[in-house]
Structure prediction request, 90 residues.
Amino acid sequence: MGVRRVQAEDVFREANERIGEKARELELQQPIPFLCECSNKLCFAHMLLTLEQYAEARSDPQRYLTIAGHEVEGAIVIAKDDRFALAEKI
Ligand SMILES: [Zn+2]
Prediction:
């Protein structure tokens, strides 16, 4: 295995993991503003989600949650509504 390039979506996802942990720890009022996990590293869009919605999207490590219309390189959209999209890397 070579050195893997750090992808924007993975950086956003790690940040979201910390946001989720903090929100649980501090029992913040929901919904919580999570970051869009698309491949555009300049994207600072937020998505308001409950911890439950977030945990559901996070249940598969290949999946990324974005604002509808934002793309994750190398992933296909497997679910979407008018606000959010769930993309999966294959
Ligand atoms: Zn985005």
About this structure: The CA atoms of residues 80 and 86 lie 6 Å apart.
